[in-house]
Amino acid sequence: MKNTQQITKAMKQVAAAKIRRAEMLQRQSRPYADAIGAMLRDLMANVGSVDHPFMKPGREGAPAGVILMTADKGLAGSFNANLIRMAEIHGRDHGDLAWYAIGIKSRNALRRQRGATLQFWPLAQGDMFANARELAQRVTDDFVGGKISSLTLISPQLVNMMTQRPEMRQILPVTPDRDQPKGTNVQGAVEFEPSPEFVLGRLLPKYLEFTLYSAMLETNAAFYAAQLIAMNNATDNAKKLIDENTVEMNKARQAAITKEILEIVGGAEALAG
Fold first, then answer.
1. Is 173 in contact with 152 (CB distance < 8 Å)?
2. How far apart are CA 189 and CA 197, in angstroms?
3. Is 139 exposed, middle or buried (0-12, 13-18, 19+ CB in 10 A)?
4. Which residues lie below 8 Å from residue 230, measured CB to CB, with a gap of 6+?
5. Do you know which CDD domains this protein is assigned to (predicted)?
6. CA–centroid distance for 270 within its chain
7. Dist. CA 124–CA 220, nearest whole Å
């Protein structure tokens, strides 16, 4: 038990150290994500029509594409299991699916799912931004080429250190905000050159690329948060078990000592009698 406690305590310290860097990267990427999202909403509100594949429905009859994003490792409580369960439920509701696996746990889980796994990328191995760019290029080629009809992302949402919630959202095709009427510029003083349509056509690929990269950063941070909580609970549980076993050991040792004393006293009394 003490050896196990040392291992869980060490993993807790490692997770606490790594989550600081993961959260820092996520916070640094958030302003860019907010800015590109606001610009995209402005463009879609001002554009009349744009001839871009991302804003058109996918090929009819093609399977729907799903990106399942998990961690590479376990020992994080129900973090990976919750994401895999959401993917399984989505797979039962939609029969014909094409999967993209992000994370080793995702790849292992998708081997039991119906539908083909088109490609796999690790989450935290190598250059994460390069992996996100390669993933964006692959799903773009498959969507434009008619291999998939849509693209859905299943990834965790880092609410806080205690809560990591699975989230499912549609990435492609990109649909305008229905609550925002067309022809109204939210910013009011923004002008797009040479035209909103041209800027939107250049912005959509970057938006997809950074959306996937941001999801990878959030998944990485959420994993370390879940692992930190899991290893903290495991360390506390090990301490409780050590205390309980120590009490039982002391009771057994005291009982053995008392028995020996009684035997000695009884033998002495018998000799004296």
1. no
2. 17
3. buried
4. 75, 76, 77, 79
5. F1-ATPase_gamma
6. 74
7. 7
Please report the domains of the chain, with CATH numbers, ordered by start residue: 23-228 (3.40.1380.10)
Token code pair at residue 87: 């993917």
Contacts with 207 (C-beta within 8 Å, 6 or more apart), sequence order = 36, 37, 40, 174
- The per-residue DSSP string of 145-176 comes to TTS-S-EEEEEEEE-SSS-EEEEEEEEES---
Give the integer Cα–Cα distance in Å for 87 and 68.
Answer: 7
Beta-ladder partners of 65: 98, 151
What is the phi/psi pair of residue 168, to 5°? -125, 125
| 128: its two tokens | 């994460």
Place of tokens 């196990």: 4
pTM of the complete model: 0.82
The span from the CA of 256 to the CA of 136, in Å, is 69
Task: Answer whether 135's CB lies under 8 Å from 101's CB.
Answer: no
Per-residue pLDDT tens, the chain, 273 aa: give them: 899 999 999 999 999 888 888 888 888 887 887 788 788 877 777 766 667 788 888 888 899 999 999 999 988 989 999 999 999 999 988 878 999 999 999 999 998 888 888 999 999 888 899 999 999 999 999 999 999 999 999 999 888 888 889 999 998 888 776 545 544 444 445 666 777 777 777 888 888 999 999 999 999 999 999 999 999 999 999 999 999 999 999 999 999 999 999 888 888 888 887
